[in-house]
Amino acid sequence: MKIRLITAGFGIFAALTAGGLAISGIWSKDPVPPDLAAATAWSPAQLRLPTSIETELPQFAQPSAAPARPLQPMPQLNVAIADTLLPTIEPPLANWSRDIATGETLDTVLEEAGLSATDRTEVALALGAEYDLRRLRPGHSVTVVSTMDGSPRSVALSVEDGVRIEAIFGEELATQVVTPDPEFITLAGEAVIDSSLFAALEDARMPARFAVDLAQMLGGTVDFRREMTGGETLRLLWREARVGKDRIGQPELTFASLEIGGALYEVVWPENGSGQATIYVDGTVLRVFAQPVEGARLSSVFGRRTHPVYGNVRMHTGVDFAAASGTPVQATAPGRVSFIGWRGGYGRVVEIAHGSDTMTRYAHLSAVPEGLAQGQRVAAGDVIGRVGATGTATGPNLHYEVLVDGRPTDPLSDDRLAEAAESEADDTAALLRLAETRALLNENLGSEIAETTTERL
User: Fold this and answer.
1) pTM as predicted
2) Could you tell me the residue range of the domain that residue 330 belongs to?
């Protein structure tokens, strides 16, 4: 009962309070200022509608009702195919090359190039089928072309005379031999002899090996030690085979002219490769002579020497020419084969009789031509054997002897062979060759030798 009375009292009190507050708010309200009342009564003017712009719209023709066309398939486009295919992009290749050094084998060099043992074996078999690998020597070069991952593409072996043997890796390992096509050029030079032929040629930058050829040709006619006093002029004409700037093989002498003691000595070599040369003195044919080994190095002369095998001092009864095994050996004068066979330390020998009292001996031969027989007649320049190392020899060379009445004589100073060759010399043809060679020397050297020496004919 009390709770209800209390609640009702609170309700009456709240109503009376709210009514009193409302009556006090109305009675206590001040009038609004005129400016404020005018501001609150302002409203923006009514916006005017934009005037319309009359434009003449284009009149589009109404499409006429045409009969519908039947649907047809689109024509097929012809795409032109390019005549040439895009180039295949080759992987980058690495090129490795090195000369073979002394004591090295092909396998050693290929291993350094990074080839596996299997690849090295295949390359050796392929190259060995075209070239005897036992003939490898310092100066030969190996070139390996491979991809960046080390897979070989080709291996090339460059040997003498510009010949290159290539092993090409593909589906199968193939081999090819590339032989250069050399260009032959003719050169001329002039040298003044003060001390020796070798020194004069070296000073004039001409092949010093020509001194051997001159010693062979003129040794039996001119005593270089006694007759040469210094200041003599030597003129040479020779040929070289070249591929680009590289010389292939050895140079070949064509003509030599040397005036000693008022006499003019000239030598003309043929171009047919026979090695048979004609010697002239003052324009007259003296003799025809063939070198036993063309272009070889004179390694030992006639006379007493220390034997290269036995070590004691003994007489050397001939001259030695160092040359590669298999190099052709030629008869130095016309004659008749008197012996073919073996003679102790000489090894395989061929002996040729030149008349009744003169004989030449060619020793240490590796082979003799099949058609050569005892009693057969040969001419100067005919091949009668091949350089070898048979018998007592330290390496491949030709031991060449000249015997007169059975006694050895110096092959570079004896003139008996000249007598044997004189009967076969054709003076008319020989003089014509001399005139042509002089003209060629004059053309290449630019000297007056052709004019000054023609008067001696």
Assistant:
1) 0.49
2) 292-412
